[in-house]
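Subgroup meeting minutes
Present: P.N., E.W., G.H.
Scribe: E.W.

1. P.N. recapped why we're keeping a running log of single-chain structure predictions: easier to compare across weeks, and new members can see raw inputs and outputs side by side.
2. G.H. added today's entry (271 aa).
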Amino acid sequence: MVDDDLKRELIENLLVRRLPLLRQATGLPVVFGGAVRHGRAGTSRLVINQLFGTLTQSLNGLVVPGGRGLGGTAIKRGSPFLVNDYATNKAITHDYDRIVVDHERLTSIFAFPIKLDGQVGGVIYGAVRGDTPIGQVALRHAGVVAKKLENELDGLIRRPAPIQSPDVKAALSDLTALIRTTDDPGLRDKLARIHRQLGGEPLAPASGTVLTAREVDALRLVALGASNAEAAQRLGLSPETVKAYLRSAMRKLEVHNRTAAVHAARTAGIL
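Output recorded in log:
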């Protein structure tokens, strides 16, 4: 049984990669989302922490209880919900108008719940500014992305642990030694990929050091092609703070630039 903390971590990590896909598939300028935390007596609250295309950081860290606002309504219903004039819609509560309407100037917005084990584990949003409402084509594409997210989460949680024979374990041990000793970054990446495909456990850095969660977050965004400024926006941090995390990660991984840090982290099984 996978605990709730791990489920939330899996959802948040997938959203970093899949929200840009939602933005591309729907053509919408603004997408955001987060994982849902479930409490006692059936209570739930969404924490929004992944933002793409927003004007401010006002939505970052926003807590939305079930039944409140657009996202809370989607959680309560367990189904997608669209409003084409957020400011005047009477089907939702208006707890967050100052942020959604005044700060972000959003008009047409949808919220898709992401279900896991029959329970809403996260919510993804798409939104526009102006008078043109979100169309059915964008909604269909959003549904495809939401379903892909659900399938990926289900696969990650239900993936059985590989059964390794003594020969496979010996081969993995040999591969680990080769990965540690080769000076060729390309070959090291290939060997690390084979190691993972054979079911090997993630490799710790050669130095035995461990990266912090924020250092990993920064490196993961760099691996996706984000600049320091873009990574800062997505993480809700200043560019200088992101640079500090990257410098710290490079020092621990014993490399001298961002690209080498990504290679080293992938080799170590961190990314």
